Amino acid sequence: VRLEPENVDYVGNRAEARGSSGDLEGALQDYGRVLELEPGSWSGRHGRGRTLVALGRWAEALPDLDGALDRHPDHVESRVSRAVARHRTGNEVGAIEDSSRAIEVDPGRADGWLVRGNVHQALQRDADARRDFEQAVAIAPDTWQAWIGLIGTRALEGDAGGAEEAAAQALRCAPPEVRPEIERRRRKYLGR
Question: Helix count (H) and strand count (E) of the chain?
Answer without folding.
Answer: 11, 0
